[in-house]
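Could someone model SN-glycerol-3-phosphate with this protein?
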Amino acid sequence: MKIFLDTANLDTIRMYNDMGLVDGITTNPSLLAKEGGDPQKTMEEISRIIKGDVSLEVVSTDYDGMMEEGRQLRKYGDNVIVKCPMTGEGLKACKSLTAEGIPVNITLVFSPNQALLAAKAGAKYVSPFIGRLDDIGHTGMDLIKEIKQIFGNYDFKTQILVASIRHPQHVVDAGKIGADVVTVPAVVLGKMLNHTLTDKGLKAFLDDWEKLKSESPSVEV
Ligand code: G3P
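Reply:
Sure, complex below.
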């Protein structure tokens, strides 16, 4: 399973990339707005830092606008995936951009049928938002199971990119289902990385080592 970071924060991206944990990045206008500054420069910089796929979202809602923006965004790098919304115009742009060799991530997917249509339009990725489904009382992860089954039945090449992840258990569940990618906010990646028993265990090892050192002056480290 690939792990993407769902952020436009350059420091966070650099930090986790240096640990070798970032297979790709997803951004959206809200994440860019949170960081402030020049969004174009930020998107360009993310595409430069990360070698894997970087999803950059269009803000046009009409076909011509999405095509123009998509071509512009792709100039930031060969790793740029153009993120288009799950609308009729978005699917039309998906088909055309894909035909031009520009891969597309269809975002804001909330039903298996929307995922099916995105796959038929040739999307490289489909992004079901599971946390937002949980928020309104559904079980978002059920959507991932359904999409996985449908794509498997017909051997669609579109990858399931689980988005709107709220906690580490979402990642575990997505992995059990066999989703291709999870895109996680930095706070969730931090929780995946850390464990209180790891901290406690490490402290005990180091304390014991110090004790041993004080009793055996020949130990140098
Ligand atoms: O990439 C977009 C998606 O992950 C949004 O998440 O937390 O705004 O529902 P959220």
